[in-house]
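hey
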């Protein structure tokens, strides 16, 4: 069988602060991702990661504070990455690869911690 190394959840809302979510990501989204991470165990020596993906907002091209401070660390080596993705499929795939491929090696996380 295959081993799950991470979880991606796409959101269709802004990662930037708003009236309904003044700090960026909504609390329910964080709880949901923490629950997903709690269900998966990465191989020994590997971190379990998750990615909350949000659509890029051309009216707000700067990275949000949450995205700039990503990844967030949880217990037991679990991490949550926050990212905005371009609207074109090829650009979105390239951005996802740039975020996910570094998570394959444990050294990548220790360098980011």
């Amino acid at each position: 069988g295959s081993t799950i190394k991470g979880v991606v959840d796409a959101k269709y809302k802004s990662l930037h602060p708003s009236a309904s979510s003044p700090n960026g990501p909504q609390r329910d989204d964080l709880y949901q991702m923490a629950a997903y991470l709690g269900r998966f165990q990465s191989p020994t020596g590997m971190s379990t990661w998750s990615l909350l993906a949000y659509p890029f907002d051309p009216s707000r091209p700067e990275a949000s504070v949450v995205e700039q401070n990503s990844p967030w660390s949880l217990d037991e080596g679990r991490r949550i990455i926050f990212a905005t993705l371009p609207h074109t499929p090829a650009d979105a795939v390239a951005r996802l690869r740039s975020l996910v491929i570094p998570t394959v090696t444990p050294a990548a996380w220790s360098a980011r911690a």
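The beta strands are 6-10, 49-55, 72-73, 79-85. Residues 6-112 form one domain.
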